[in-house]
Amino acid sequence: MIEMKVAGIALDAITRSPIVLLKDGSDRRALPIYIGQDQAKAIIGALEQQKPPRPLTHDLIVNIMDAWEMQLERIIIHSLQDNTFYAILSVKIGENKKEIDCRPSDAIAIALRTGSPIWVMEEVIADASIPVDRDADEEERRAFKEFLSTLRPEDLIQRGGINPEES
């Protein structure tokens, strides 16, 4: 799993649909997730730390969690099936832990309100992320190719802690 942060909300240029954009800690990968207008407003409100005059749905959920002494440990965006992302809320109640199925947009809105981390499974990032820093990716590929070009079989045996004479 990779921890990600909300980079912001964008609009798809063609459909005008809102997209929440998550970025990894190195700003090398971004994960765009299409969301609804209401979820976009909820996420923007949390990012801007707006306090509505009356609790909205995500605020209500956080208030219920607080009243029942529930802690949101993290959210996990765990799969992508048929262009639909799936997430869970990982909640702790005393010593008990529960995983609650949730739309990623709602999970993100709640995580932002509680200061909880956002985690994404590596398979989801591999399937749906977009590169942000192509130059850094290319430099990493070049360095790896250079490393491989100088690697000898003896290096692998020495690095692996295997002494062929002891085998």
UniProtKB/TrEMBL annotation:
It comes from the Bacteria. PROSITE patterns: BFN. GO terms for molecular function: nuclease activity. Residues 1-132 form the BFN domain. Pfam families: BFN_dom. This is BFN domain-containing protein. It comes from Gloeothece citriformis (strain PCC 7424).
